[in-house]
Design goal:
6 strands, Rossmann fold, alpha/beta, globular, 202 residues
Length: 202
């Protein structure tokens, strides 16, 4: 029997103002780029299952795309697609982290995959929860289009999973705000259909 193809449409949320580390801080996003939302609404499939992280910037972005013309019910919330938790560094700039917490920062940058920010989680932890959620949701919704509005970290982890490489390899990928990444799964095989396609307007 042929395997059903499940198509994952990963979207990073709209830009967040400020230069601090967002992490799991519940920050709103900039919804002024209506042309980008309209462009995404045109390319996303009808009848898809919509999922977003619980953070407001993901929920706002999903709402703006749906309002722009995509036929969808309200997105399902998936906590495992939340951004990496950066603990006490959230809200700080990297320069400030270096000044105030230089020792921990050096440990982190020496091993950004396994090291945990103080009070936070490692990228390896994030990749683990994202992978389990993809497997769980993929089995329940096999053969469907799944639109996920999430964050750079989970999308990088999903790409590493699809490429069958170590989670840390995903950290080398650029994932821009309001970009589209398409990953198709059939059985145990993955195909990368699109990576970091920008929809944000200059």
């Amino acid at each position: 029997m042929a395997e059903k193809t499940t198509r994952w449409w990963w979207l990073r949320h709209a830009p967040v103002s400020g230069s601090g580390i967002s992490g799991q801080a519940d920050l709103p996003c900039d919804l002024s780029d209506t042309a980008a939302f309209a462009g995404l609404a045109k390319v996303l499939p009808e009848g898809a299952l919509w999922i977003c992280s619980p953070l407001v910037r993901s929920r706002e972005t999903a709402g703006a795309i749906i309002k722009a013309g995509t036929e969808s019910t309200l997105p399902m919330i998936e906590p495992d697609f939340t951004e990496q938790h950066f603990g006490r560094w959230e809200g700080l700039t990297w320069d400030r982290v270096e000044k105030e917490d230089g020792g921990a920062a050096h440990v982190f940058w020496d091993d950004p995959v396994n090291a945990r920010p103080p009070g936070g989680e490692s990228f390896k932890n994030l990749a683990g929860r994202v992978g389990l959620a993809i497997d769980r949701l993929g089995r329940v919704h096999a053969g469907r289009d799944i639109v996920v509005v999430a964050h750079a970290g989970p999308i990088r982890a999903a790409c590493a999973l699809a490429l069958d490489v170590a989670p840390g390899k995903g950290l080398s990928l650029e994932i821009d705000p309001l970009s589209l990444t398409r990953l198709d799964c059939f059985g145990q095989t993955w195909r990368v259909g699109a990576l970091n396609i920008p929809f944000i307007c200059p």
